[in-house]
Automatic annotation (TrEMBL):
TM segment ranges: 370-395
Source organism phylogeny: Eukaryota, Metazoa, Ecdysozoa, Arthropoda, Hexapoda
Claim: Repeat is one of the keywords in the record: no
Membrane topology category: Single-pass type I membrane protein
Name recorded for this polypeptide: Glycosylated lysosomal membrane protein
Subunit structure as annotated in this protein's UniProt entry: Interacts (via lumenal domain) with lysosomal protein MFSD1; the interaction starts while both proteins are still in the endoplasmic reticulum and is required for stabilization of MFSD1 in lysosomes but has no direct effect on its targeting to lysosomes or transporter activity.
Chain's role: Required to protect lysosomal transporter MFSD1 from lysosomal proteolysis and for MFSD1 lysosomal localization.
Length: 409
Protein backbone atom coordinates (compact mmCIF):
# COMPACT_ATOMS: atom_id res chain seq x y z
CA UNK A 1 0.00 0.00 0.00
CA UNK A 2 2.81 2.36 0.98
CA UNK A 3 4.71 1.41 -2.13
CA UNK A 4 1.64 2.00 -4.20
CA UNK A 5 1.30 5.53 -2.88
CA UNK A 6 5.02 6.20 -3.45
CA UNK A 7 4.55 4.96 -6.96
CA UNK A 8 1.69 7.43 -7.41
CA UNK A 9 3.92 10.20 -6.07
CA UNK A 10 6.53 9.18 -8.59
CA UNK A 11 4.01 9.33 -11.41
CA UNK A 12 2.79 12.75 -10.29
CA UNK A 13 6.34 14.09 -10.12
CA UNK A 14 7.17 12.65 -13.54
CA UNK A 15 4.04 14.23 -15.00
CA UNK A 16 4.72 17.58 -13.32
CA UNK A 17 8.25 17.47 -14.71
CA UNK A 18 7.16 17.05 -18.28
CA UNK A 19 4.40 19.65 -17.89
CA UNK A 20 6.60 22.59 -16.90
CA UNK A 21 9.25 22.35 -19.59
CA UNK A 22 8.77 24.44 -22.69
CA UNK A 23 10.46 23.90 -25.98
CA UNK A 24 12.05 26.32 -28.37
CA UNK A 25 13.00 25.86 -32.01
CA UNK A 26 16.70 26.37 -32.66
CA UNK A 27 18.18 27.75 -35.86
CA UNK A 28 21.76 28.86 -36.35
CA UNK A 29 24.05 30.42 -38.93
CA UNK A 30 27.79 30.99 -39.18
CA UNK A 31 28.76 34.54 -40.15
CA UNK A 32 25.13 35.46 -40.76
CA UNK A 33 24.74 37.53 -43.91
CA UNK A 34 28.48 37.84 -44.57
CA UNK A 35 29.60 37.26 -48.14
CA UNK A 36 33.18 38.29 -48.78
CA UNK A 37 35.19 39.43 -45.80
CA UNK A 38 34.48 36.43 -43.55
CA UNK A 39 35.99 33.52 -45.51
CA UNK A 40 38.94 35.77 -46.30
CA UNK A 41 39.60 36.56 -42.67
CA UNK A 42 38.55 33.11 -41.43
CA UNK A 43 36.37 34.54 -38.68
CA UNK A 44 33.72 32.77 -36.61
CA UNK A 45 30.57 34.45 -35.35
CA UNK A 46 27.60 32.14 -34.81
CA UNK A 47 24.08 33.54 -34.73
CA UNK A 48 21.59 31.35 -32.92
CA UNK A 49 17.91 32.01 -32.54
CA UNK A 50 15.59 30.11 -30.24
CA UNK A 51 11.96 30.79 -31.11
CA UNK A 52 9.31 30.26 -28.44
CA UNK A 53 5.56 30.81 -28.72
CA UNK A 54 5.63 34.44 -27.57
CA UNK A 55 9.20 35.61 -27.90
CA UNK A 56 12.59 34.84 -29.40
CA UNK A 57 15.98 34.59 -27.74
CA UNK A 58 18.86 35.62 -30.00
CA UNK A 59 22.45 34.70 -29.26
CA UNK A 60 25.57 35.90 -30.96
CA UNK A 61 28.75 33.94 -30.18
CA UNK A 62 31.71 35.93 -31.38
CA UNK A 63 35.37 34.95 -31.82
CA UNK A 64 36.50 37.86 -33.94
CA UNK A 65 37.88 39.54 -30.83
CA UNK A 66 37.76 38.30 -27.24
CA UNK A 67 35.26 35.40 -27.07
CA UNK A 68 31.90 36.91 -26.21
CA UNK A 69 28.22 36.06 -26.04
CA UNK A 70 25.31 38.43 -26.55
CA UNK A 71 21.79 37.42 -25.54
CA UNK A 72 18.71 39.41 -26.56
CA UNK A 73 14.99 38.87 -25.98
CA UNK A 74 12.68 40.21 -28.68
CA UNK A 75 9.23 39.61 -30.18
CA UNK A 76 9.28 36.57 -32.53
CA UNK A 77 9.24 38.72 -35.66
CA UNK A 78 12.57 40.46 -34.92
CA UNK A 79 15.81 39.61 -36.76
CA UNK A 80 19.44 40.30 -36.13
CA UNK A 81 21.39 42.30 -38.68
CA UNK A 82 25.16 42.81 -38.91
CA UNK A 83 26.98 45.38 -41.07
CA UNK A 84 30.05 43.25 -41.63
CA UNK A 85 32.66 45.79 -42.65
CA UNK A 86 31.90 47.87 -39.57
CA UNK A 87 31.60 44.76 -37.44
CA UNK A 88 35.03 43.45 -38.37
CA UNK A 89 36.47 46.92 -37.73
CA UNK A 90 34.74 46.82 -34.30
CA UNK A 91 32.63 49.94 -34.87
CA UNK A 92 29.66 50.70 -32.69
CA UNK A 93 26.08 49.81 -33.68
CA UNK A 94 27.25 47.40 -36.38
CA UNK A 95 24.99 44.79 -34.74
CA UNK A 96 21.32 45.68 -34.46
CA UNK A 97 17.86 44.15 -34.30
CA UNK A 98 14.96 44.97 -36.58
CA UNK A 99 12.87 45.52 -33.41
CA UNK A 100 14.21 46.86 -30.14
CA UNK A 101 14.94 44.00 -27.71
CA UNK A 102 13.11 44.03 -24.38
CA UNK A 103 16.24 42.78 -22.65
CA UNK A 104 19.90 42.16 -23.49
CA UNK A 105 22.84 40.71 -21.64
CA UNK A 106 26.42 40.09 -22.71
CA UNK A 107 29.42 38.23 -21.36
CA UNK A 108 33.04 38.57 -22.48
CA UNK A 109 35.57 35.93 -21.50
CA UNK A 110 38.11 38.69 -21.25
CA UNK A 111 41.19 37.48 -19.39
CA UNK A 112 43.08 34.42 -18.35
CA UNK A 113 45.22 35.36 -15.41
CA UNK A 114 48.25 33.41 -14.28
CA UNK A 115 49.36 33.89 -10.69
CA UNK A 116 52.25 32.57 -8.65
CA UNK A 117 50.63 31.09 -5.56
CA UNK A 118 53.68 31.35 -3.30
CA UNK A 119 51.94 30.31 -0.09
CA UNK A 120 49.61 27.70 -1.62
CA UNK A 121 46.42 29.50 -0.65
CA UNK A 122 44.83 29.05 -4.11
CA UNK A 123 43.47 32.59 -3.70
CA UNK A 124 44.29 35.04 -6.46
CA UNK A 125 43.41 38.08 -4.36
CA UNK A 126 46.45 37.55 -2.14
CA UNK A 127 48.85 37.58 -5.12
CA UNK A 128 50.52 40.89 -5.90
CA UNK A 129 51.11 42.47 -9.32
CA UNK A 130 54.60 41.07 -9.83
CA UNK A 131 53.25 37.57 -9.19
CA UNK A 132 50.48 38.01 -11.73
CA UNK A 133 50.46 37.81 -15.55
CA UNK A 134 47.39 38.79 -17.53
CA UNK A 135 46.63 37.09 -20.84
CA UNK A 136 43.94 38.87 -22.85
CA UNK A 137 41.87 36.36 -24.80
CA UNK A 138 41.69 38.49 -27.97
CA UNK A 139 45.42 37.80 -28.53
CA UNK A 140 44.93 34.09 -28.96
CA UNK A 141 44.59 32.84 -32.49
CA UNK A 142 41.03 31.41 -32.54
CA UNK A 143 40.30 28.51 -34.87
CA UNK A 144 36.97 26.78 -35.49
CA UNK A 145 37.35 23.08 -34.66
CA UNK A 146 33.79 21.94 -35.21
CA UNK A 147 30.23 23.13 -35.40
CA UNK A 148 27.14 20.95 -35.19
CA UNK A 149 23.80 22.55 -35.94
CA UNK A 150 20.88 20.34 -34.98
CA UNK A 151 17.36 21.44 -34.20
CA UNK A 152 17.68 20.39 -30.56
CA UNK A 153 21.33 21.25 -29.88
CA UNK A 154 23.86 23.61 -31.38
CA UNK A 155 27.49 22.98 -30.45
CA UNK A 156 30.52 25.07 -31.38
CA UNK A 157 34.08 24.01 -30.50
CA UNK A 158 36.82 26.61 -30.77
CA UNK A 159 40.50 26.49 -29.97
CA UNK A 160 42.77 29.41 -29.16
CA UNK A 161 46.51 28.92 -29.77
CA UNK A 162 49.72 30.87 -30.30
CA UNK A 163 49.16 33.68 -27.83
CA UNK A 164 50.96 36.84 -28.86
CA UNK A 165 50.10 40.23 -27.41
CA UNK A 166 51.04 43.86 -28.01
CA UNK A 167 53.80 43.65 -25.38
CA UNK A 168 55.37 40.88 -27.48
CA UNK A 169 54.62 38.21 -24.89
CA UNK A 170 54.12 34.82 -26.53
CA UNK A 171 52.83 31.58 -25.07
CA UNK A 172 52.22 28.13 -26.40
CA UNK A 173 49.36 25.98 -25.16
CA UNK A 174 45.70 26.13 -26.01
CA UNK A 175 42.41 27.32 -24.67
CA UNK A 176 39.56 25.08 -25.80
CA UNK A 177 36.19 26.71 -25.68
CA UNK A 178 32.87 24.99 -26.37
CA UNK A 179 29.51 26.70 -26.54
CA UNK A 180 26.17 24.91 -26.56
CA UNK A 181 22.62 26.18 -27.13
CA UNK A 182 19.58 24.15 -26.10
CA UNK A 183 15.86 23.91 -26.85
CA UNK A 184 14.51 22.48 -23.61
CA UNK A 185 15.13 21.71 -19.91
CA UNK A 186 17.65 18.89 -19.45
CA UNK A 187 21.09 17.96 -18.20
CA UNK A 188 23.99 18.49 -20.58
CA UNK A 189 25.87 15.45 -21.88
CA UNK A 190 29.25 16.61 -20.73
CA UNK A 191 30.43 16.27 -17.11
CA UNK A 192 29.59 18.17 -14.82
CA UNK A 193 26.16 17.61 -16.47
CA UNK A 194 24.82 21.08 -15.70
CA UNK A 195 21.05 21.46 -15.67
CA UNK A 196 20.10 23.86 -18.46
CA UNK A 197 16.85 25.43 -19.55
CA UNK A 198 15.61 26.37 -23.00
CA UNK A 199 16.98 29.85 -22.20
CA UNK A 200 20.56 29.02 -21.44
CA UNK A 201 23.95 28.60 -23.08
CA UNK A 202 26.68 26.34 -21.79
CA UNK A 203 30.28 27.53 -21.88
CA UNK A 204 33.08 25.03 -21.31
CA UNK A 205 36.69 26.19 -21.03
CA UNK A 206 39.75 23.93 -21.01
CA UNK A 207 43.25 25.26 -20.35
CA UNK A 208 45.27 22.58 -22.11
CA UNK A 209 49.06 22.62 -21.62
CA UNK A 210 49.25 26.37 -21.24
CA UNK A 211 52.81 27.56 -20.97
CA UNK A 212 53.46 29.03 -17.55
CA UNK A 213 55.88 31.83 -16.70
CA UNK A 214 59.26 30.22 -15.95
CA UNK A 215 59.88 32.65 -13.08
CA UNK A 216 56.72 31.34 -11.37
CA UNK A 217 57.19 27.98 -9.69
CA UNK A 218 53.65 27.67 -8.34
CA UNK A 219 51.46 28.83 -11.18
CA UNK A 220 47.71 28.71 -11.09
CA UNK A 221 45.17 30.18 -13.48
CA UNK A 222 42.06 32.27 -13.04
CA UNK A 223 39.44 33.35 -15.57
CA UNK A 224 37.89 36.79 -15.64
CA UNK A 225 34.51 37.51 -17.19
CA UNK A 226 32.97 40.84 -17.94
CA UNK A 227 29.17 40.95 -17.71
CA UNK A 228 27.21 43.78 -19.34
CA UNK A 229 23.49 44.23 -19.56
CA UNK A 230 20.04 45.56 -18.70
CA UNK A 231 19.01 46.11 -15.08
CA UNK A 232 19.79 48.77 -12.53
CA UNK A 233 23.54 49.57 -12.75
CA UNK A 234 23.52 50.77 -9.13
CA UNK A 235 22.55 47.35 -7.81
CA UNK A 236 25.59 45.08 -7.53
CA UNK A 237 25.41 41.50 -8.71
CA UNK A 238 26.22 39.02 -6.05
CA UNK A 239 27.70 35.56 -5.94
CA UNK A 240 25.56 33.03 -4.15
CA UNK A 241 26.92 29.55 -3.42
CA UNK A 242 24.07 27.13 -2.67
CA UNK A 243 23.96 23.59 -1.43
CA UNK A 244 22.21 21.33 -3.89
CA UNK A 245 19.94 18.38 -3.13
CA UNK A 246 22.01 15.54 -4.48
CA UNK A 247 25.10 14.82 -6.52
CA UNK A 248 23.53 12.33 -8.88
CA UNK A 249 24.51 14.30 -11.99
CA UNK A 250 27.82 15.76 -10.78
CA UNK A 251 29.35 13.08 -8.55
CA UNK A 252 30.88 14.42 -5.36
CA UNK A 253 29.76 18.04 -5.85
CA UNK A 254 26.94 19.25 -3.64
CA UNK A 255 27.16 22.93 -4.43
CA UNK A 256 25.98 25.27 -7.16
CA UNK A 257 27.32 28.81 -7.47
CA UNK A 258 24.98 31.41 -8.89
CA UNK A 259 25.48 35.02 -9.95
CA UNK A 260 22.28 36.91 -10.70
CA UNK A 261 21.78 40.30 -12.29
CA UNK A 262 19.25 42.66 -10.67
CA UNK A 263 15.69 42.42 -12.04
CA UNK A 264 14.76 44.89 -14.79
CA UNK A 265 11.61 46.86 -15.61
CA UNK A 266 9.65 45.67 -18.60
CA UNK A 267 8.07 48.19 -20.98
CA UNK A 268 4.71 47.66 -19.24
CA UNK A 269 6.26 48.33 -15.83
CA UNK A 270 6.37 44.76 -14.55
CA UNK A 271 9.56 43.55 -12.93
CA UNK A 272 11.34 40.67 -14.71
CA UNK A 273 14.13 38.42 -13.52
CA UNK A 274 17.27 39.31 -15.46
CA UNK A 275 20.07 36.88 -16.27
CA UNK A 276 22.30 34.60 -14.34
CA UNK A 277 25.55 32.70 -14.47
CA UNK A 278 25.68 29.32 -12.79
CA UNK A 279 28.37 26.70 -12.24
CA UNK A 280 29.48 23.78 -10.10
CA UNK A 281 32.65 24.67 -8.17
CA UNK A 282 34.68 21.88 -9.75
CA UNK A 283 37.55 21.79 -12.23
CA UNK A 284 38.69 18.54 -13.86
CA UNK A 285 42.34 17.84 -14.48
CA UNK A 286 41.97 15.39 -17.35
CA UNK A 287 39.66 14.67 -20.22
CA UNK A 288 37.89 11.79 -18.45
CA UNK A 289 36.48 14.25 -15.91
CA UNK A 290 36.26 11.85 -12.99
CA UNK A 291 35.85 13.11 -9.46
CA UNK A 292 39.19 11.53 -8.50
CA UNK A 293 40.97 13.81 -10.97
CA UNK A 294 39.28 17.03 -9.99
CA UNK A 295 40.00 20.12 -7.97
CA UNK A 296 37.92 23.09 -6.86
CA UNK A 297 37.15 26.50 -8.28
CA UNK A 298 37.07 29.58 -6.07
CA UNK A 299 34.86 32.61 -6.74
CA UNK A 300 35.34 36.19 -5.60
CA UNK A 301 32.89 39.05 -5.04
CA UNK A 302 32.09 40.73 -8.40
CA UNK A 303 33.99 43.96 -8.95
CA UNK A 304 32.74 47.26 -10.22
CA UNK A 305 34.19 48.58 -13.47
CA UNK A 306 34.94 52.18 -14.38
CA UNK A 307 35.17 53.52 -17.92
CA UNK A 308 32.73 50.94 -19.27
CA UNK A 309 33.04 51.85 -22.90
CA UNK A 310 36.81 51.86 -23.14
CA UNK A 311 37.05 48.48 -21.47
CA UNK A 312 34.84 46.71 -24.07
CA UNK A 313 36.07 48.73 -27.06
CA UNK A 314 37.61 45.83 -29.02
CA UNK A 315 34.82 43.35 -28.42
CA UNK A 316 31.57 42.36 -30.09
CA UNK A 317 29.64 43.93 -27.20
CA UNK A 318 30.97 47.33 -28.28
CA UNK A 319 29.61 46.61 -31.77
CA UNK A 320 26.18 46.27 -30.21
CA UNK A 321 26.11 48.64 -27.22
CA UNK A 322 28.58 51.30 -28.39
CA UNK A 323 28.90 54.40 -26.23
CA UNK A 324 25.64 53.55 -24.43
CA UNK A 325 27.62 51.05 -22.33
CA UNK A 326 28.47 53.82 -19.87
CA UNK A 327 24.91 53.75 -18.50
CA UNK A 328 24.61 49.97 -18.33
CA UNK A 329 25.21 47.48 -15.62
CA UNK A 330 28.78 46.16 -15.88
CA UNK A 331 30.76 43.95 -13.56
CA UNK A 332 33.84 41.74 -13.49
CA UNK A 333 33.49 38.18 -12.27
CA UNK A 334 36.56 36.16 -11.39
CA UNK A 335 36.98 32.46 -10.77
CA UNK A 336 40.30 30.80 -9.96
CA UNK A 337 40.99 27.14 -10.71
CA UNK A 338 42.59 24.93 -8.10
CA UNK A 339 42.61 24.46 -4.37
CA UNK A 340 45.16 24.36 -1.57
CA UNK A 341 47.47 21.36 -1.78
CA UNK A 342 46.40 20.09 -5.22
CA UNK A 343 49.90 20.38 -6.70
CA UNK A 344 49.30 23.56 -8.77
CA UNK A 345 48.60 23.76 -12.51
CA UNK A 346 51.85 21.99 -13.41
CA UNK A 347 50.63 18.73 -11.86
CA UNK A 348 48.21 18.04 -14.73
CA UNK A 349 48.71 20.98 -17.10
CA UNK A 350 45.00 20.60 -17.80
CA UNK A 351 42.07 22.30 -16.06
CA UNK A 352 38.45 22.92 -16.96
CA UNK A 353 35.70 25.30 -15.99
CA UNK A 354 32.08 24.95 -17.09
CA UNK A 355 29.34 27.52 -16.60
CA UNK A 356 25.90 28.43 -17.84
CA UNK A 357 24.72 31.82 -19.05
CA UNK A 358 20.94 31.98 -18.77
CA UNK A 359 17.95 34.23 -19.02
CA UNK A 360 15.13 34.13 -16.45
CA UNK A 361 15.24 32.15 -13.24
CA UNK A 362 18.03 29.61 -12.74
CA UNK A 363 16.74 26.02 -12.81
CA UNK A 364 16.72 24.13 -9.53
CA UNK A 365 18.03 20.60 -9.36
CA UNK A 366 15.23 18.19 -8.36
CA UNK A 367 15.29 14.61 -7.24
CA UNK A 368 15.21 12.56 -10.41
CA UNK A 369 12.73 9.72 -10.96
CA UNK A 370 15.51 7.26 -10.21
CA UNK A 371 16.28 8.82 -6.83
CA UNK A 372 12.56 9.04 -6.02
CA UNK A 373 12.16 5.37 -6.94
CA UNK A 374 15.07 4.41 -4.69
CA UNK A 375 13.60 6.47 -1.83
CA UNK A 376 10.17 4.91 -2.46
CA UNK A 377 11.59 1.42 -2.33
CA UNK A 378 13.70 2.35 0.70
CA UNK A 379 10.67 3.62 2.61
CA UNK A 380 8.00 1.45 0.99
CA UNK A 381 9.61 -1.96 1.33
CA UNK A 382 10.09 -1.92 5.14
CA UNK A 383 6.52 -0.62 5.52
CA UNK A 384 5.23 -3.37 3.26
CA UNK A 385 7.15 -5.98 5.28
CA UNK A 386 5.76 -4.58 8.54
CA UNK A 387 2.19 -4.62 7.23
CA UNK A 388 2.63 -8.13 5.82
CA UNK A 389 4.14 -9.39 9.09
CA UNK A 390 1.27 -7.81 11.03
CA UNK A 391 -1.32 -9.40 8.79
CA UNK A 392 0.44 -12.76 8.97
CA UNK A 393 0.49 -12.65 12.78
CA UNK A 394 -3.23 -11.80 12.90
CA UNK A 395 -4.10 -14.53 10.45
CA UNK A 396 -2.00 -17.07 12.33
CA UNK A 397 -3.62 -16.21 15.65
CA UNK A 398 -7.17 -16.68 14.44
CA UNK A 399 -6.97 -20.41 13.56
CA UNK A 400 -5.08 -21.01 16.84
CA UNK A 401 -8.04 -19.73 18.84
CA UNK A 402 -10.26 -21.96 16.71
CA UNK A 403 -7.90 -24.80 17.44
CA UNK A 404 -8.14 -24.20 21.20
CA UNK A 405 -11.90 -24.04 20.98
CA UNK A 406 -11.88 -27.29 19.02
CA UNK A 407 -9.60 -28.97 21.54
CA UNK A 408 -11.62 -27.82 24.55
CA UNK A 409 -14.74 -29.40 23.17
C1 LIG B 1 2.03 32.94 -24.66
O1 LIG B 1 1.01 33.92 -24.65
C2 LIG B 1 -0.27 33.35 -24.42
C3 LIG B 1 -1.30 34.45 -24.58
O2 LIG B 1 -0.82 35.68 -24.07
C4 LIG B 1 -0.29 32.71 -23.05
O3 LIG B 1 -1.54 32.11 -22.81
C5 LIG B 1 0.79 31.64 -22.97
O4 LIG B 1 0.87 31.10 -21.68
C6 LIG B 1 2.13 32.22 -23.33
N1 LIG B 1 3.08 31.14 -23.41
C7 LIG B 1 4.27 31.16 -22.79
C8 LIG B 1 5.14 29.96 -22.94
O5 LIG B 1 4.64 32.12 -22.13
C1 LIG C 1 20.31 44.14 -42.94
O1 LIG C 1 19.86 45.45 -43.14
C2 LIG C 1 20.14 45.97 -44.44
C3 LIG C 1 19.72 47.41 -44.51
O2 LIG C 1 18.81 47.72 -43.53
C4 LIG C 1 19.43 45.12 -45.48
O3 LIG C 1 19.74 45.57 -46.76
C5 LIG C 1 19.88 43.68 -45.32
O4 LIG C 1 19.17 42.84 -46.21
C6 LIG C 1 19.68 43.19 -43.91
N1 LIG C 1 20.28 41.88 -43.79
C7 LIG C 1 19.68 40.86 -43.21
C8 LIG C 1 20.44 39.58 -43.18
O5 LIG C 1 18.58 40.94 -42.72
C1 LIG D 1 53.45 34.31 2.18
O1 LIG D 1 53.80 34.03 3.51
C2 LIG D 1 54.83 34.88 4.04
C3 LIG D 1 55.20 34.35 5.41
O2 LIG D 1 54.06 34.04 6.14
C4 LIG D 1 54.34 36.32 4.08
O3 LIG D 1 55.34 37.15 4.57
C5 LIG D 1 53.95 36.73 2.66
O4 LIG D 1 53.40 38.03 2.67
C6 LIG D 1 52.95 35.75 2.06
N1 LIG D 1 52.76 36.11 0.68
C7 LIG D 1 51.57 36.14 0.10
C8 LIG D 1 51.53 36.55 -1.33
O5 LIG D 1 50.55 35.86 0.69
C1 LIG E 1 56.86 36.42 -16.33
O1 LIG E 1 56.55 37.22 -15.21
C2 LIG E 1 57.33 38.40 -15.11
C3 LIG E 1 56.96 39.10 -13.79
O2 LIG E 1 55.59 39.30 -13.67
C4 LIG E 1 57.06 39.28 -16.33
O3 LIG E 1 57.87 40.45 -16.28
C5 LIG E 1 57.37 38.50 -17.60
O4 LIG E 1 57.02 39.26 -18.74
C6 LIG E 1 56.59 37.19 -17.60
N1 LIG E 1 56.94 36.39 -18.77
C7 LIG E 1 56.03 35.86 -19.60
C8 LIG E 1 56.56 35.02 -20.73
O5 LIG E 1 54.84 36.05 -19.47
C1 LIG F 1 41.05 28.96 -41.91
O1 LIG F 1 40.76 27.94 -40.95
C2 LIG F 1 40.92 26.64 -41.43
C3 LIG F 1 40.44 25.67 -40.38
O2 LIG F 1 40.25 26.28 -39.15
C4 LIG F 1 42.39 26.42 -41.80
O3 LIG F 1 42.54 25.11 -42.29
C5 LIG F 1 42.80 27.43 -42.84
O4 LIG F 1 44.17 27.30 -43.12
C6 LIG F 1 42.50 28.84 -42.39
N1 LIG F 1 42.74 29.78 -43.47
C7 LIG F 1 43.39 30.93 -43.31
C8 LIG F 1 43.54 31.79 -44.52
O5 LIG F 1 43.83 31.29 -42.23
C1 LIG G 1 57.87 43.20 -30.83
O1 LIG G 1 58.78 42.44 -31.62
C2 LIG G 1 58.95 42.96 -32.94
C3 LIG G 1 59.83 42.00 -33.72
O2 LIG G 1 60.67 41.30 -32.92
C4 LIG G 1 59.55 44.37 -32.85
O3 LIG G 1 59.70 44.91 -34.14
C5 LIG G 1 58.60 45.25 -32.01
O4 LIG G 1 59.20 46.54 -31.84
C6 LIG G 1 58.35 44.65 -30.66
N1 LIG G 1 57.32 45.41 -29.96
C7 LIG G 1 57.39 45.72 -28.68
C8 LIG G 1 56.26 46.53 -28.11
O5 LIG G 1 58.33 45.39 -27.98
C1 LIG H 1 38.73 56.69 -17.60
O1 LIG H 1 39.34 56.97 -18.86
C2 LIG H 1 39.93 58.26 -18.91
C3 LIG H 1 40.46 58.49 -20.31
O2 LIG H 1 40.80 57.33 -20.96
C4 LIG H 1 41.05 58.37 -17.86
O3 LIG H 1 41.61 59.65 -17.87
C5 LIG H 1 40.46 58.08 -16.48
O4 LIG H 1 41.48 58.07 -15.51
C6 LIG H 1 39.74 56.75 -16.47
N1 LIG H 1 39.08 56.56 -15.18
C7 LIG H 1 39.22 55.45 -14.44
C8 LIG H 1 38.49 55.45 -13.16
O5 LIG H 1 39.90 54.53 -14.80
C1 LIG I 1 12.62 31.58 -20.55
O1 LIG I 1 12.31 32.77 -21.22
C2 LIG I 1 10.91 32.99 -21.35
C3 LIG I 1 10.70 34.14 -22.29
O2 LIG I 1 11.03 35.38 -21.79
C4 LIG I 1 10.32 33.19 -19.97
O3 LIG I 1 8.94 33.42 -20.07
C5 LIG I 1 10.58 31.94 -19.15
O4 LIG I 1 10.14 32.11 -17.83
C6 LIG I 1 12.06 31.59 -19.15
N1 LIG I 1 12.25 30.28 -18.56
C7 LIG I 1 12.90 30.10 -17.42
C8 LIG I 1 13.05 28.69 -16.95
O5 LIG I 1 13.36 31.03 -16.79
Amino acid sequence: MASASSFCLLLVVALADSGTSTRRTLRSWVNWGCDEPCPERNVTAVYLRADGPNDTLHYLWDFVGAPSVLLAVTPPSAWLNISWDDYLARRENSVYFSEKPTYTFGVIISKIIEFNDVNDTALIDTADVKNTNVLRTEYFNWRRVSLSQKSELVNLDMEGNSYHDTANISRYGSVKLSLQGFCTLDHSDMVPHMLHTENSTLVDIILDHMQTNETFSKSRFAIELLAVGGGNPEVPMFVDPKKSLDDEHTPGIFEVVEVRTPPYNNLDGTLNAGSYLQWRPVSYSNALREITSSTETIQYPPKQVFNHTSIIRNSMLYCYYGEATDNLLMQKIMVSLGSKGDGYYKKSSYLTWTFMIGYGTPPEERFSSLVIMIISIGLGLPLLIMVATGLYLCVRRVPKRHGNVYLSR
